[in-house]
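Title: [Solved] Ornithine cyclodeaminase 3D structure

Original question kept below for reference.
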Amino acid sequence: MPDGIWLRFLSGPDIDALGLTRLEIVDAVEDAVREHGLGRTAFEPRVHLTPDNGGIGHFNILRGHLDGLGAHGVSGVKVVGDLKGLPSELAMATLFDPTTGVPLAVLDATMITAARTGAMTTVGARHLARRDSKILAHAGARGTAWWNVTMLDDLFDLDEIRVTSARPESREKFAAELAEELSTPIRVCATAEEAFDGADVLVEATRLTEPEPLLRTAAVKPGTLTIPYGTVSAVELDLLDVMDKVVVDDWREAQSGRFGALRRHVDTGRLSPETLYAEIGQIVAGQRPGRESDAERNLFWHRGLSLLDVAIAHLILTRAEAADAGTMLRFH
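Solution (posted by the thread starter after getting help):
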């Protein structure tokens, strides 16, 4: 390579061609979560940039660092747009050497954003769901939904997957896409109530604009794992009252921002340091037990850690370097 500082640019098609498996992504996320539990990370809660754009949306900016990646660790920043008319996960990530500040890579992070959400859902299920869970119910059909369902199907020997969303055409399309990928029977449900009734793993990933109790407390039977992470609350206020363990990805992150499935629960004190069981990193690192009985009702709320974006981006960069994929760009 000629003199100067060079970085690797990886487009969406470049990343797709690397052929990362779902299991590789889940394992990379679990490693990052373990590092978080062990205190070998640095990150700040996301911040929002809201330009004067007529109210069509905002940008999320996420920043994180993992000590255990590369020779000196890796730092990263991701900017993801949440604007009407564009995919909600459209994003770009940058990776840096934390000892020199030299940029290492610029990546299309659209897949990373969707996949890391599904991977975090799956890491939570690895530790908090019953191993013999048979029915998965999923509300929401946006980009992250595909990764949630397919990764959970990889984890469990499911008998049935139920999917629902607000629009009939979106849930039918989502079910058809899943049926092409998975052998587990897919059932399309007209309502969230129908989907969640009697399910073992309940995932709420809707995009409400106003709070609405789609996931009702009565639907949470003994032995279930409930994972609500929609932007606006779709759960009843007394949901936490029936839970044996309430787990978050990061307590500081859970308290930040205006959005989140359990925003009201934090604001009203129902979710507090006293009612919180653990952060998922503490469980993955072996500092707290995960599920301890088949009868437990557990809840996992994840808002999205920048550490996961850095972990998957580094996995992609490592694979790309080995394959000499992407485009090398002169930086300085």
